[in-house]
Structure formats: structure tokens, C-alpha cells
């Protein structure tokens, strides 16, 4: 049965620094869909813990039940571009596409270094990318045809990815009679 939502919900996930926020902002401005930054939701509703490291203000631990309560209406409405370094907490039936951004480790190192990450934190995140933790999480949580891996190394990749996702959104609308 086709979902009631008039626009799809899309997760943009991947290791920190891989380009999630950059992609989400560009996609939101091009499609009019909503950039749902989970870091912002967690901070706004005070439902998680942020690290003490000023170079890494990202949320570390989230109360997932409360988070889902906070975004349930948004997901039901549809048209959400979810920006989060994980994907397994979102209900499968609410998600139409999962994009896992990938990046060469040397580039990722430079991006995280520029953010001021400590060597330890850098290594932690590079390990996550090398071991394909987020790709595996996506594959374990969603049907094969819902998950796509996209390279995010240069600005030309952002343009190509955004264009591809935009086309996918148009097709989703047609297929779902919107
Ligand atoms: P994330 O939200 O995954 O942590 P981001 O969007 O904040 O990542 O990007 C981190 C930095 O890297 C930021 O300065 C933009 C840059 N960047 C990301 N993806 C890129 C790409 N494909 N080409 C060039 N720069 C990119």
C-alpha cells in the first residue's frame, strides 16, 4: 500500500565529516523539502548528551524513544531529509531512501583535522569509515533497494548526488500518485 505522505522521507547518513549537512542543505534548498537535523532536535528538546570536547559539539547519546516522539509527526507528514550519523533508529516503514555518503580517508582526515578534532577522535572516526560501519548499519536495517552509497569527495560529487536524489524524488512522487 502506498504511504499517505505526499513527499518521501530520506536519510543522509555517514561518518562525521563526510558531507551530510552540506548535502542536506543543498537538497533542501533545491527541492523545498525539510532539512531535519537530528543534532538540532536533540539539543532543542534536551534529549541527549553532547560531548565535552568543544571541537566536537555533536550529540553522542540520544534518548531514541523521546527523539522518535519529537519527530513522529514530521515523518508522518513526509518530505524530511534526515541528517544523522546513524539510521537504525528510524522506523523502516517511514523511510523511503537511505543515502550513505562515503569519503576517502585522507580527505576525511583533513576535514576532521580542520574541525579541530583530537588525534584520538580522528582515529575513531576514520576507523568507522574504514570498517564501513554506517553502510553495514543501513544494509542491516533497510531493504537492499532502499540503500544507496554515494561518494562525497569533491564538490562535483555534491552536485551529482543532489541531482540524482532530486530525480529520485520526482520519480517517487510519480510512482506514488502525488
Ligand atoms: P557532516 O555533516 O557529515 O559532518 P559536513 O557537511 O559538515 O559533514 O562537511 C564537513 C566539511 O567537509 C565541510 O567543510 C564541507 C566539506 N565537504 C563535505 N563534503 C564535501 C565534498 N563532497 N566536496 C568538498 N567538500 C566537502
From TrEMBL:
It is found in: Cytoplasm; Nucleus. GO terms for molecular function: AMP kinase activity; ATP binding; ATP hydrolysis activity. ATP binds at residues 17, 19-22, 115. Residues 114-124 are annotated as: LID. Its EC number is 2.7.4.3. One of its GO terms (cellular component) is cytoplasm. Belongs to the adenylate kinase family. AK6 subfamily. This is Adenylate kinase isoenzyme 6 homolog. The lineage of its organism: Eukaryota, Fungi, Dikarya, Ascomycota, Pezizomycotina.
Amino acid at each position: 500500500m502506498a504511504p499517505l505522505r505526499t513527499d518521501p522521507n530520506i536519510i543522509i547518513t555517514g561518518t562525521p565529516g563526510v558531507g551530510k549537512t552540506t548535502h542536506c542543505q543543498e537538497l533542501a534548498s533545491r527541492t523545498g523539502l525539510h532539512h531535519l537535523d537530528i543534532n538540532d532536535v536533540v539539543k532543542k528538546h534536551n534529549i541527549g548528551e553532547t560531548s565535552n570536547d568543544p571541537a566536537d559539539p555533536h550529540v553522542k547519546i540520544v534518548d531514541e524513544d523521546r527523539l522518535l516522539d519529537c519527530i513522529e509527526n514530521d515523518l508522518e507528514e513526509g518530505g524530511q531529509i534526515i541528517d544523522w550519523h546513524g539510521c537504525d533508529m528510524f522506523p523502516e516503514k517511514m523511510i523511503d531512501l537511505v543515502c550513505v555518503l562515503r569519503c576517502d580517508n585522507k580527505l576525511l582526515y583533513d576535514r576532521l583535522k580542520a574541525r579541530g578534532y583530537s588525534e584520538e577522535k580522528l582515529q575513531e572516526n576514520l576507523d568507522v569509515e574504514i570498517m564501513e560501519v554506517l553502510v553495514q548499519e543501513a544494509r542491516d536495517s533497510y531493504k537492499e533497494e532502499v540503500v544507496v552509497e554515494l561518494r562525497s569527495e569533491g564538490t562535483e560529487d555534491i552536485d551529482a548526488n543532489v541531482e540524482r536524489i532530486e530525480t529520485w524524488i520526482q520519480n517517487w512522487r510519480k510512482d506514488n500518485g502525488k
